[in-house]
Amino acid sequence: MELTRRQTLGLAAATVAGTTVAAGTSAEATPNRWVRETMRRMTLEQKVGQLFVCYAYGPTAGTSDARNTSLYGVATPAEVVAKFNLGGVIYFTWTDSTKDPQQIARLSNGLQEASLAGTGIPLQIGTDQEHGSVVRVGPPATQFPGGMALGATRSAAYARSAGAIAGRELKAIGITTDFAPDADVNVNPLNPVIGVRSVSSDPALVAQLVAAQVKGYQRDGRVVSTAKHFPGHGDTATDSHTGIPVIGHTREEWTRIDLPPFQAAIRAGIRSIMTAHIVVPALDPSGDPATLSRPILTGILREQLKFDGVVITDSLGMQGVRDKYGDAEIPLRAIEAGVDQLLMPVDPGLAYNSVLDAVRSGRISETRIDESVERILTLKHNTGLVDHPYVDLARVAKIVGTPANYAEAQRIADRSTTLLRDDAALLPLSPAPRTILVTGYSPTNLATALQSRGATAVVKDTGTTPTDAKIADAVATVADLTVVLTNKAWDTEVTDKQAKQQKLVNALLATGRPVIVVPVRDPYDVAYFDPAPTTLVTYGSTAPSMEALAKVLYGEIAPTGKLPVEIPAKADPTEIMHPFGHGLTFDAKQTRLTVASYNIHAGAGEDNVFDLDRTAQALKALDADVIGLQEVDVHWDVRSQWLDTLAELATKLGMHSAFAPIYDLDPPTAGQPRRQYGVGLLSRFPLIRTENHPITRLSTQDPNPVPAPAPGFLEAELEVRGRRLHVYCTHLDYRADPSVRQLQVADTLKILAQDRKKDLQVLVGDFNAEASAPELAGLWSRLTDSWSAAGSTTGGPYTYPAVAATKRIDFVTVGTNLNVLRAEVPAEVPVAEAASDHRPMIADLSFRP
Questions:
Q1: Which of the following CATH numbers is that of domain 592-847: 1.10.630.10, 3.40.190.10, 3.30.1510.10, 3.60.10.10?
Q2: Residue 306 exposed, middle or buried by CB count within 10 Å (0-12, 13-18, 19+)
Q3: Which PROSITE patterns match (predicted)?
Q4: pLDDT digits (tens, 9 = 90+) for 798-844
Q5: In angstroms, how far apart are the furthest CA atoms of the chain?
Q6: What is the SS3 string spanning 180-247?
Q7: Are strands 689-698 and 707-720 parallel, antiparallel or unpaired?
């Protein structure tokens, strides 16, 4: 059961200057009355304490930690709160504050108890839960996409729902303030500290989505929202954690670019705004950072924008605010500038006593302190914290990380994924099982998502600074497809000083194998690699973002994200590589399927012999889901070898195999094995059924050849996304006369007619005739011919026969339920690498489920 403030005060007296705050002074009275009566009972020490928001080490309020003793002179978080009469605390992972929801809730209750026992005033408990790249409370709390991902959706509704759910979950574990959203407009691609934390480079879009987030956090989620970093941190190439950025915007540029999101947040009712440790000469020529600037905080924020909520500094431990003044002077200048709350001073005791001394000496009036305390207490009252300082532990699991919350996070992530390039027409992938190398930054979540779709994921985590050994290992890994993830690969000043992520991506692209490049943070990465034919951006690497990426890769959803920033070229920033709003898509209702025809024929390569490894390499390069094989087992010696050899080939490729023998190559000879000759099939999909149909053939090797039905028309039945797919593979007699061809076409049509009309049909094989031959008309009237779709091909020195351009050997034809997206004859390889003296055919197909 949740305790109210009045019940709490009945359990623990709140000593304030030797008196007790009356239990009857409830927040049910008007806020002004409660605030006035509380302030009247507060000592100066307690008032000054309300200005400070600090961290404390330990998972519980009573945990002793030597780090607390070193910093504060007391051991436990509860003692820290009591010693300095803190107005607020902030949680981080590194302070051991955010292990899991139950632990956080217990810590919150324990700290509230300590605060109420000391001052009678509940704590404001905050954290930086921006989502995306800045997260303090991890799973099972719902992990939403961050600011730029929201920008890619262009949806204010999603921005609000993310804020609402995040707010409710934080409130359930006792966190009353979220230092979010980021209201900066990221107009500088080289911004090292904001980047994807920002919604966009477009002020109007940032303003729209920031306002929606504020409404979600505050109106729906019932926590305090904090817009940051005023007056705007989006156009800096310096990280204010390590230096002091100078923003060169004119007053007009600031008004046009940086101001709109903060105006929108104020109109939406924002209760708190965080300052930036940045110098903006156009707003204050003194050279003071905004955190210490009265012209900016009082002149603009208070007087011009009429903001009367709580102004809190960014961390006072950041170098951007410490460069000019000492740690004792910084809090005084912040208060004089118009700040209400001082966040994380480097030396809390020094800062606290400095403020006390300034008031006692008359430098800062107590009236000025009262102005801030009144705002802080009003904030606590208006958010319900005064009447309900504790959270109900029994309700935490019912609110945090629910299936409905997870589903909403996934819906948002699904809408954010942005497809930048698909020059190789690689996407969407077919649903066929395949081996995928997932490498780069934090690949585990994506690997899990891919494995759930039947892929065999090979994980090579190289982080943000891959070693040469890890790069070599990734490049040497054999897979059907590679997905490489990057994180701030453009940043060679801090993140990746030796540009090793760029080296990794370029090395993978140089292999010539299919590679998908995905920046999982800043989209600007794509300008720093060699041209990658297939690139997407996710703006985050959490599980929902990686699940969304997997959905897009497999065509389960269409990519709908639009770039919320523009991506300039690395060499010339004035040249735009991808403009604002760019984003490709495809028809997610179409399922992709790649089918190839390949003639395994002897006499290939410089050694003029069949080579299994060379053939496997050639077949792998086709990257096809289904491969029909002709002239299988020619010159493979004894009969018993064909099945083992084909099975070995399938194993090398990670595919399933089938074979249909034809026994008419050699006349019977005493004491000699008759060479086997047949057709085969390799498939990434499991084979449900196979059958070797008889078809009219001309027994060309026997005496007195006559046309007669003989085996050699292979059927393999597969299932692809709920549809039955029949793949037929044949090697028709290239020496046959037109009358035999007519019989073969008639037999083919009879076999095809046995399938249901709704089933999918593919015929793969070779047929030494021109597509326009009259005897083939019946076949092409039933099937769409990718032979024709590919256009004419020119025979080369290793094409058999090296004759007329339209005289094809291999073909892929499809039934009416399949569409031919693309069909081509791949380029010939050097003779030393040739696995066959025929040219293959490959066709990209699609169908609707």
A1: 3.60.10.10
A2: exposed
A3: GLYCOSYL_HYDROL_F3, TAT
A4: 333 333 444 455 778 888 889 888 888 777 677 667 777 677 888 88
A5: 121
A6: CCECCCCCCCCCCCCHHHCCCCCHHHHHHHHHHHHHHHHHHCCCEEEEEEECCCCCCCCCCCCCCCEC
A7: antiparallel
